[in-house]
Amino acid sequence: MRIHYATQTDVGRRKDRNEDYFGVFREDAPGLTFFKEGALFLVADGLGGHAGGEIASKLGVSIVKDLIKEPPPEPPEDPDADAGYLPVIRKYIKQANDNIFRTNQELVKGNRPMGTTMLAVLALRNKVFIGNVGDSRCYLVRAGEIIEKTIDHSWVDEQVKLGLMSKSEAESDLRRNIVTRSVGNHEEVVVDTYRWHMVPGDVLLMCTDGLINMVKDVDINAEFQKRATPAEIAQRLVNRANENGGKDNITVIVAHISPNLFQLMVTYAVRFFRKHWQQLMWTLLALLFGAACFVVGRFSVKWL
Asked: What pTM did the predictor assign?
């Protein structure tokens, strides 16, 4: 299974340190037994203003990644049943919550307890299984269009659900960074899970709210309509977030799932030309000049 992916993380323009953390675990990960082909992507955003946000995000990723050591689950008879991969993902996110919550109880005194968002995305051949707590987000992009995305656990998102705020109002509201659900702040946590069907050529975008609070979906969508590699898309999205203010840490993972080989070759050829077009033009001009000199020299010898 081919997965071409790129990662970018940036402190942004307003923060002193990066409290985001991520991990990518493929077939060569030590101890992997959970799947044969695919990848596990993890994105965590330590809660700003809390004690040890960067510690919580790293601890969360280190715990949830261990799900790859689980034996592969039996395929459920009912494909829509809550069985197979999703219960395992939910179990490990809850383990991360238990661990961070106990650490808060034992060590954090006089400060706001540490916590983190947690997005776990297991991409297999034709399915993606997702567990999510908080406002980090996963998108499924097909043919340059966003067709699925996870729901944020944020205050403004709840207002939209209640009909008290429009989506356009939510995108510009200053309270977008207030999360209503996180890993580690409470003894119990509810994990949202998703199961999406994928086809070859689909793209997954996983990101923290440092991107989605700075770049609207319509502008994110526009980046996927350009012929570009995952690395170029990830870098452009980070740049857009910073150009729009960069108020938070920004983490982006772009994963192209089983891309068409011909289209992939064209995309990388276009990228190579964009990067080296000046050198290629000078080389071509030098070759043309050399050829012209050769022709002129041959005719000059014949004339003499």
From this structure: 0.85
- DSSP letter for each residue of 121-138: EEE-SSEEEEEEESS-EE
Nearest to 140, CA basis, from 204, 88, 196: 204
Q: What is the pLDDT of residues 229-269, one digit of tens each?
A: 999 999 999 999 999 999 999 999 999 999 876 555 555 55
Q: Where are the domains of the chain?
A: 3-259, 261-304
Which residues contact residue 77 at a Cβ distance below 8 angstroms, ignoring those fewer than 6 apart? none
**Residue 56 DSSP SS3:** helix
Distance CA 169, CA 166 (A): 5
Residue 84, CA distances (Å) to 38, 89, 93, 179, 201 in order: 15, 10, 16, 29, 25
pLDDT digits (tens, 9 = 90+) for 93-136: 999 999 999 999 988 776 788 999 999 999 999 999 999 999 99
Task: Write phi, then psi, for 107 (nearest 5 degrees).
Answer: -120, -30
Q: Right CATH number for 3-259 from 3.30.457.10, 3.40.630.10, 1.10.760.10, 3.60.40.10?
A: 3.60.40.10
| Residue indicated by tokens 């050591």 | 69
SS3 content of the chain, % helix, strand, coil (to 5): 40, 25, 35
Residue 125: CA count within 13 A, CB half-sphere: 4
Taking 80 as the threshold, does the pLDDT of residue 221 lie above it? yes
